[in-house]
Amino acid sequence: MEQYIIEHLINSDSLIVGIIMVFFQLILEMKSTGNLIYICIPVAIFLSTAVVWLIKIIAKNVNNTYEAGTGFVIGSFFSFVTTFAAVLLLFSLQFTEPVVKVVVKGWEVSLMANVDWRAKTFRKAYENVADIKTEDGRQIESFNGYPHPDNGGSNIPTVSEQAKLVSINTYIIAAENNFEKTIPFLSWILTAKSGTAESDILNDMKQHFSKKNSTYQVEDAYKIASDRISTALLEQSERIMIVGSILVFVTWLLIQIIVIGLISWVALRSIKENFGVVKAV
Question: What is the pLDDT of residues 15-36, one digit of tens each?
């Protein structure tokens, strides 16, 4: 079940799907940690019932002859369900960190296995390095023996410091953008910061060239980039708990206000209708 949720969360770029999948993952995490869910469910049922009872009291205060009809049943059911879900979610938000770890790790593994992303990013890095020119208009790197990726090339010349940095930043930006596109819900709350990726990749390059003369493998660059971004994302996991709690409460409150408003309007309308009937008599 967990694997199914993670795959759908990563493979879908829908904000709604992302919210639903994160919600289910939080519930699963809460269920797997012990008896908290068995405490949470009765509390959720009690509070949901209390909210429905309160809505009925409000309607009776508006019109003491108000009889619950189809509209009240639908409204109270919607209020019950949303209150129940809100309580579950608020309880489960304390398990944000392990859920974020699973999701981010899933994204990182998915990124490493994304052949299309790797090919596009490599092409972009190659072309960005090729676009670097000296003051007299010559390419800063020699591309002899380094064919374009479309012609079967698999390496980028990165002798100069500038070429190294351009190549590194291409991969970092591509990884950050991929997270924002792949998991829009989390990326709305979390920032895919690269952290120390640039300096770490640069040091890795320097160590590589100090030991051997072979071309630096770009796979090493995006592995470091995704790892550092994952670390930075995990460090922000507490933000989800804060933002998530605020969003859940505000959304729940707005829904209850709408339900109470509609039921109160029906109750007031019932008064007018009854008054009209009495006046006519």
Answer: 666 677 777 777 777 777 777 7
Extract the tokens encoding 243.
């933002």
Phi first, then psi, for residue 62 (nearest 5°) are: -75, -40
pTM score of the predicted model: 0.67
Other Cβ atoms less than 10 A from the Cβ of 152: the count is: 7
Long-range contacts of 251-256 (CB under 8 A, 24+ apart): 251/86, 252/82, 252/83, 252/86, 255/78, 255/79, 255/82, 256/51, 256/55, 256/79, 256/82, 256/83
Looking at the DSSP bridge assignments, the partners of residue 139 are 133
Please measure the distance between the N-terminal and C-terminal CA atoms of the chain and give it in whole angstroms.
Answer: 64
* Residue 144: HSE in the Cβ half-sphere, 13 Å Cα cutoff: 1
CB-CB contact of 9 with 17 (8 Å): yes
Which residues are bridge partners to 133 per DSSP?
139
pLDDT digits (tens, 9 = 90+) for 120-162: 888 998 889 888 888 787 888 888 888 888 888 878 877 787 8
d(CA 218, CA 121): 10
**CB-count exposure of residue 167 (10 Å: 0-12, 13-18, 19+):** buried
29 alpha-carbon distance from chain centroid: 17
The long-range contacts involving 26-29, CB below 8 angstroms and separated by at least 24 positions, are 26/89, 26/92, 26/93, 26/95, 26/96, 26/99, 27/88, 27/92, 28/1, 28/2, 29/92, 29/95, 29/98, 29/99
